[in-house]
Amino acid sequence: MSLTAGSDPSVETGSGQLLVHMRSVLPGLAGALRQVGNVILEDPAWASRATIVELGERSGTSPATVTRFCRSVGLGGYTELRVGIATEIGRADQAGWEVGIGADVLPTDPIERVLRTLLAVDLQAMHETAAGLDLRTIEVVVDALVAARRVDFYGVGGSAAVFEDMQMRMHRIGIASWSWSDVHNGLTSAALLGRDDVAIGLSHSGRSKETVEMLAQAKASGAATVAITNFSTSPIAEVADHLLCTSVRETSYRSGEMSARHSQFLVLDLLYLAVAQRTHERAKDTFARTADAVAQHRTPYEPRGRSARPADPQRGA
């Protein structure tokens, strides 16, 4: 899901993104509303058949709270909620996916099932992330990156590792960019940005204090700000001009942040390739020059069965 900060966080019934949207906005809802959402996400199939009274009872709330929950996620009422969930379950069944919390790895699972589960969960997260992206927002961000004087990337922990790769790739196609994980250095850089610059913050939870602070400073300095997160109502969304959301479910043995890597790279790869397209001639030239610069540090390839020693001129070829 991709929203411009401040827009209405609603979702169309039948879009196949209702449960994704719920997971995204759930942390920002009040306690009773969050209870309703948790019950739905724990067992979407049951929720699609339950009455409003049954859902209220299971969540320890009331029909009125369920109705408020529907409105809080952009739906007109409970009937629309049930139809949306049923539609998403049907589409997931056709694709061979599980809905709700998703497939998980058990301690007794054989390695083959672990592999299948891992592949299914990561592929589903990438498909859901791609389906939820607002390509108009992507275009706006790409325009800003192409025109930027410089680009700052802010992330801590696992997000910092993801951004190190992105920063290097952008630098290699001629986009002046820096990646900051230390909050003091990041704030210093953010303070020197201006209206011709872009700052992108990455935080799966959207609550990493250091990342939010760095992005907020960049915004205060006049830079265009972009947030990439799994939760559209998280604190980082409040300091972003443009919001790009992944759709990732936490599984056993992998935190949400660890599970998010593939979906985060999908969003970043899309931005990178779109920028490279827009700046084709420059990108092609700078990429070739950087490749030449490191070519001498690559070990020459020698096919197996052939000696790596130079031929003896006395013995002939």
Automatic annotation (TrEMBL):
Q: Which UniProt keywords apply?
A: DNA-binding, Transcription, Transcription regulation
Cite the SIS domain residue spans from the record.
141-281
Q: Where is this region: Disordered?
A: 292-317
Gene3D superfamilies noted in UniProt: Glucose-6-phosphate isomerase like protein, domain 1, Winged helix-like DNA-binding domain superfamily/Winged helix DNA-binding domain
Q: Which InterPro entries match?
A: Homeodomain-like_sf, HTH_RpiR, RpiR-like, RpiR-like_SIS, SIS_dom, SIS_dom_sf, WH-like_DNA-bd_sf
Record-annotated HTH rpiR-type domain positions: 16-92
What the entry lists under CDD domains is as follows:
SIS_RpiR
What Pfam families does this protein map onto? HTH_6 (PF01418), SIS (PF01380)
The region annotated as signal peptide is none
Instruction: Note the superkingdom of the native organism.
Output: Bacteria
Keyword 4Fe-4S belongs to the record: no
Q: What is this protein called?
A: MurR/RpiR family transcriptional regulator
Q: Which organism is it from?
A: Pseudonocardia aurantiaca
* Organism taxonomic ancestry: Bacteria, Bacillati, Actinomycetota, Actinomycetes, Pseudonocardiales
